[in-house]
Amino acid sequence: MKWSFTCQHKQILSHRPNGGRNRERTKQEREMGVGEGKLPLFETRVRKGRTLYQLYALSVLLSICMILAYRALHIPADGEKGRWAWIGLSMAEIWFGFYWILTQSLRWNLVYHHTFKDRLSTRYKNNFPGVDIFVCTADPKIEPPIMVINTVLSVMAYEYPTEKLSVYLSDDGGSDITFYALLEASRFAKAWIPFCKKYKIEPRSPGAYFKEASSGPDDGLREWLDIKRLYEEMENNINSVANSGVVNNDIRKQHKGFSEWSGTATPRDHQPIVKILIDGRDGARDFEGNVLPTLVYMAREKKLHRHHNFKAGAMNSLLRVSSEISNGALILNVDCDMYSNNSETIKDALCFFMDEEKGHEVAFIQLPQHFNNVTKNDLYGNSILAISEIDFHGLDGYGGPLYVGSGCYHRRESLLGKKYDQTHKLELVARERDYKSTSLDLEERAKNLITCTFEDNTQWGNEVCVSHSFSVYPFFSLVQGHLGRKKKQIPMFNLSIMNKQQKNALKG
Ligand SMILES: O=c1ccn([C@@H]2O[C@H](COP(=O)(O)OP(=O)(O)O[C@H]3O[C@H](CO)[C@@H](O)[C@H](O)[C@H]3O)[C@@H](O)[C@H]2O)c(=O)[nH]1
Ligand SMILES: [Mn+2]
C-alpha cells in the first residue's frame, strides 16, 4: 500500500511501513524480520517550494505565448518596411522559447533521496552483501601510480565489514610500476585502515587527507605522525620508481608477481595478469588484528592488433575476474583520478538496494563526482554543478538520470542481464565466496577469463555487461559505459542518484 503525507514540510512520496507484500515470507526473511512492519530504508522527497517554482515557470510560459501571439498578429504586410526583420526575430523567439521549455522539463520536478543508515544497521546487523570495487587505470605516465593507489586506499578504508570488501585495480597500462605501487599500498593499508577507523578520518585518501590536515587528532597525535611518515616514505618510493621508469631488481625480489614482467611484454602486447595481493579469505590482518579487504591487481591480455574497447573492455574483464575471486553482489566502479570523500556511502547505497518495497526497482546508485582542480570562481562551469545538482535530480523525477560511466553502484546480476522480482534483496545478502580454492588456483582460473579472445562470438559487450558499441573513445566516453540494460532484460528498473547527504561522496 502507498500513500503520501507531509513530514517536516516535505512531501514524502513513498512510505511503506509494512513492506507492502501479500506473499508468504521465506525462512530467511522471517529470521531477518523482513516485512514485520519495517520502516523504509530511504525516502524520496520533492524539492521544497516546487509549487512556487512551477507557478513561476507557468507565468514565464504565458509571457512567451503572449509574445509569440503578438508577433504572429502583427507581421508587417508584404512590401512593408521591416517585414523580414520581424519574421527573423519571431523565429529567434520561437527557438528561444522552445529551448526554455526543454530546460524547464529538467527543473519541473526535482526529487531528492534521503537514506536511513541506522535502520539498515539495526535490521541487517552485519549481514551485508559482498561489495567489489573496480578502479581503472590506463597509463602510469598520465595517471601517476601514487594517485591511483590513493584512490585504492580510500575505497579499501570504507566503513564496511572488511571481509566483504574487495578492491580490484585494472591496469590497462600493464605496468610493473603500477603493480609496485599497489604492492606498497597493500602494506600501507595495514596501518592506514585501522587508523582511519579509529579516528574517523575523512577523506580516506591519505594524499588528500594529509594535504588538508595540518595536525592530527588530539588523542592520537603520535600515531598520526607515524602514519604521516609512513605515507611520505611510500610516496617517495613510488614517485622515485615512477620517475625513473624502471623497477629495480631489489624491488622485484619483494614479490613473485614481478616475474610477469620478465619477458618481452609491452603495455600493448602482454599475457593476462592477475595477482591477489591481499586475500581476505586467508585471514590477512592489519596491524590492529582486523581482517583486511581483498586486493587484486589485474591486467587483461593485450595483443597488438586486437581492439580492447577501452574502459568498457576493462569493466567487462573486471566483472569476470571478480566473479571468480570474490563474487560480490554489489559493484562500485570508480576512475583512478577520484577518491572516496565519504566513508559511509556503501551503506547509503545499500539503503536503496535493500529497501523491501522499492529496492528491486533501483538499477543503479550514482555518486556525483566533485572536482578539485577547478579555478577559484569556476568561470567556465567546469565543475558541472548544474548537471549533478539540478539536471540529474530533474531526470530522477521522471524515473532516473543517465549513467555517466563511473562512481556508480550496480548489482552484479543486473550487469549480467538478470531480471528482477521482489525477492532480489535476499540475493544481495546471501552470496558465498569460494573458500576452497587457493589464491593461486583463483588467479589461474581468472586469467583465462581475460584473454583477448574470451569475448569472441559471445554476447559480452553486446547484450551482456558494459556495452562496447559506443566506444569511439574519447568522443563518446560518456555513452561508452552505457549498459546493456535493454528494456527486455531489466524491465522493472528505475535509476537513482544520491544527493545532499552523500554530497561530495567522490572527489577528484
Ligand atoms: O583504455 C582505457 C582507457 C581508459 N581507462 C580508464 O577509464 C577511466 C576514465 O577515463 P578518462 O580518460 O579519465 O575519461 P574522462 O573523460 O575523464 O571520464 C569520463 O568518461 C569516463 C568513461 O565513460 C567515465 O568513467 C568518467 O566518469 C567520466 O568523467 C580512467 O580511470 C581510465 O584509466 C581504462 O581503464 N582503459
Ligand atoms: Mn578522468
TrEMBL record:
Query: GO MF annotations for this entry?
Result: cellulose synthase (UDP-forming) activity
Asked if the record carries the keyword Cytoplasm, the reply is no
Location comes to:
Golgi apparatus membrane
**What main location does UniProt list?**
Golgi
Transmembrane feature ranges: 55-72, 84-102
Would you tell me the Gene Ontology cellular component terms?
Golgi membrane
Q: How does it sit in the membrane?
A: Multi-pass membrane protein
**Binding residue positions for UDP-alpha-D-glucose:** E143, D172
Alphabetically ordered keywords of this record: Cell wall biogenesis/degradation, Glycosyltransferase, Golgi apparatus, Membrane, Transferase, Transmembrane, Transmembrane helix
Q: Which GO terms describe its biological process?
A: cell wall organization; cellulose biosynthetic process; plant-type cell wall organization or biogenesis
Q: What does this protein do?
A: Thought to be a Golgi-localized beta-glycan synthase that polymerize the backbones of noncellulosic polysaccharides (hemicelluloses) of plant cell wall.
Q: Under what name is this protein listed?
A: Cellulose synthase-like protein E6
